[in-house]
Amino acid sequence: MAKHNDIGKLGEQIACDKLVGEGYAIAERNWRLGHLEIDIVAMKGDEVVFAEVKTRTSGEGVDPLEAIDRRKIAHIACAADAYMKAHSELRMYPRFDVFGILIDPDGRHLVEHIPDAFYPPLKTYR
To answer: What is the DSSP string of 92-125?
Structure first.
């Protein structure tokens, strides 16, 4: 497996650990339907969290959260809509979180978690 895939999996595990530490149950990791994907689906009470995780190594010199642009947000919202339709039994409020994770060469990490990072754009999805 490519190194960037390993870094991504590590970042997702760090994000899952943080959510579990906050009392969330991880329902799905890397949920897919066609070309749609959600990194993490977590649940607590009447809330379902759709989390996007961006992980970079500190040597890259870029903020991982910069990779989450309008197009990515629209894609996440579309995937969350598909997830909710596929799980119509869920009567939960959706929330969209993002995680920006920097990992240094020694394996230490810095996590920036933004709960309720965005609202889904108001448009019709196919």
So the answer is: -EEEEEEEEEEE-TTS-EEEEEETT--PPPSS--
Buried b (16+ CB within 10 A) or exposed e, 82-102: bbeeeeeebeeebbbbbbbbb
Which amino acid, 95? R
- Of 80, 78, 17, give the one whose Cα is nearest residue 48: 80
Per-residue pLDDT of the chain in tens (126 residues, 90 and over written 9): 456 568 889 999 999 999 999 999 999 999 999 999 999 999 999 999 999 999 998 766 678 999 899 999 999 999 999 999 999 898 899 999 999 999 988 878 999 999 999 998 876 556
55 DSSP β-pair partners: 101
Question: How many CB atoms neighbour CB 119 within 10 A?
Answer: 11
**Within 13 A of 55's CA, how many CA atoms are on the CB side?**
21
- Is the full-model pTM beyond 0.85? yes
Q: What are phi and psi of 66, to 5 degrees?
A: -65, -20
